[in-house]
Write a structure and sequence with these properties.
The chain is α+β, with helices and mostly antiparallel strands. Helices cover 24% and strands 21% of the residues. It is built from seven helices and 17 strands. Strand 1 and strand 2 form a beta hairpin.
Length: 374
């Protein structure tokens, strides 16, 4: 079985199932000497796990990470970094009734069609809990990127058809993002969406939405033509997430209805405003950035911006028609503990995958040209 390995130089392999003993990752290619403590990984995993009410599942896991190798006295050794998190609250019996059923909207049938068998306990590797290994690896990548002054921030930009005001609009505040369970950086919109979420919950349904991401401090020149362009690598990373159904950079699909005179980005930054960022992050001046910080698949030095669309969670409380492994049509009501909307928990996952792509390209960039000797 392949598909569990990501990256070229800065690489990660994830392992584990939703209801197995543990999940985790092995990060290789990280340079030595990067400050990395267990608290850094714990903080990112805490952001990913459910909690705080809102649309999250009621499954409670401590998600306590263990660093098994690759770190000594708070710094990376340059050797493989193995991180493991043990499952402690599986309740696998909730899934016994699904052993012979293929849940609508899930990977049950396609997984079995590929491998001939499947782990019916929460979907195994197709579960959203698989992202735990990605987030742990992303914490390592973030620590590496911080040495270069690269800062990544993602946020919920829409839920259930309600759009959140963007960075250039009044009321947008990234510090507000971690103050509500929806990770919406706009207080008024967060209150509105929480009301809608409760209505959807009462109906036994679920909701989708989008996550926006911006990267500041990224140097120009990252990206490898022709097949390893920055946007191509990011697209592959984001669409590897289970519920991701689309991605757009900068102006995205809206650019298709515009003219070149309004969409062409100037290669020299022209300050015209500021973004309000969390305390400790430098205030960044920006200009129109229709291409999302890339030209020709290579970073321009402008803020990197993109948005990822996530479908509604397929595990809903409404009765549904499905098929069992014997070809019979069955009525299904999914029991267990599930997210009503997984978009808020996808925010740190999007950040993690972004960090893994950028860390890898940063190392590739260092070999892109012959540097003159002393």
């Amino acid at each position: 079985m392949g598909g569990n390995h990501f990256g070229t130089i800065f690489t990660v392999t994830t392992f584990g199932e939703s209801h197995g003993p543990a999940l985790g990752c092995v990060v290789d290619g990280c340079p030595a000497g990067i400050p990395l403590g267990i608290e850094v990984i714990r903080r990112e995993l805490t952001r990913r796990r459910p909690g705080g009410g809102g649309p999250a599942t009621s499954r409670v896991e401590g998600d306590e990470p263990e660093i098994l190798s690759g770190v000594f006295e708070g710094k990376t050794l340059g050797t493989p970094i193995a991180i493991m998190v043990r499952n402690t609250n599986q309740r696998s019996g909730d899934y016994d009734a699904l052993k012979d059923l293929y849940r609508p909207g899930h990977a049950d049938w396609t997984w079995e069609a590929t491998y001939g068998l499947r782990d019916h306990r929460g979907g195994g590797r197709s579960s959203g809990r698989e992202t735990l290994g990605r987030v742990a690896a992303g914490a390592v990548a973030k620590a590496f990127l911080e040495e270069y002054g690269v800062i990544i921030h993602a946020w919920t930009s829409s839920v259930a058809g309600i759009s959140v005001p963007g960075p250039e609009e009044p009321g947008f505040d990234l510090e507000e993002r971690e103050k509500n369970p929806l990770r919406i950086p706009h207080q008024e919109t967060a209150t509105q969406v929480l009301q809608v979420i409760e209505q959807i919950r009462a109906e036994g349904d679920s909701a989708g939405g989008t996550v926006s991401c911006s990267v500041w401090g990224l140097p120009p020149g990252l990206g490898e033509p022709v097949f390893e362009k920055l946007d191509a690598r990011l697209a592959a990373a984001m669409l590897s997430l289970g519920a991701a159904k689309g991605i757009e950079f900068g102006a995205g699909f809206a650019a298709a209805s515009e003219r070149g005179s309004s969409q062409n980005d100037c290669p020299a930054p022209a300050p015209s405003g500021t973004l309000r960022l969390p305390r400790g992050v430098p205030q960044v001046r920006y200009q129109s950035n229709h291409a999302g910080g890339m030209l020709g698949g290579i970073s321009t030095g402008m803020p990197l911006t993109f948005r990822v669309a996530f479908k509604p969670v397929p595990s809903i409380a409404k009765p549904q028609q499905t098929m069992d492994r014997y070809g019979a049509v069955r009525e299904l009501i999914i029991q267990g503990r599930h997210d009503l909307c997984m978009v808020p928990r996808a925010v740190p996952v999007v950040e993690a995958m972004t960090a893994l792509v950028l860390a890898d390209l940063m190392l590739l960039h260092q070999g892109a040209r012959l540097m003159p000797g002393p």
